[in-house]
From TrEMBL:
Highest classification ranks of the organism: Bacteria, Bacillati, Actinomycetota, Actinomycetes, Streptosporangiales
Name under which the protein is recorded: ATP-binding protein
InterPro entries for the chain: HATPase_C_sf
Stretch list, region Disordered: 1-20
UniProt keyword terms in alphabetical order: ATP-binding, Nucleotide-binding
Molecular function via GO: ATP binding
Gene3D superfamilies for this protein: Histidine kinase-like ATPase, C-terminal domain
UniProt source species: Actinomadura latina
């Protein structure tokens, strides 16, 4: 598996109640919050 990256960063969504997808980042965000992990600022270089 390779990931070439994208032009932006992933963003959290509020999926419809019956939607089959769109909850991955919500799960990661909830786990990170429960572990008190906030990450570090990204350094972008051109």
């Amino acid at each position: 598996v390779t990931d070439q990256g994208g032009p932006g960063e992933p963003t959290l969504r509020n999926p419809a109640e019956l939607a089959e997808g769109g909850r991955g980042l919500l799960t990661v965000d909830a786990l990170a919050a429960s572990w008190s992990w906030t990450g570090t600022p990204r350094v972008l270089r051109s």
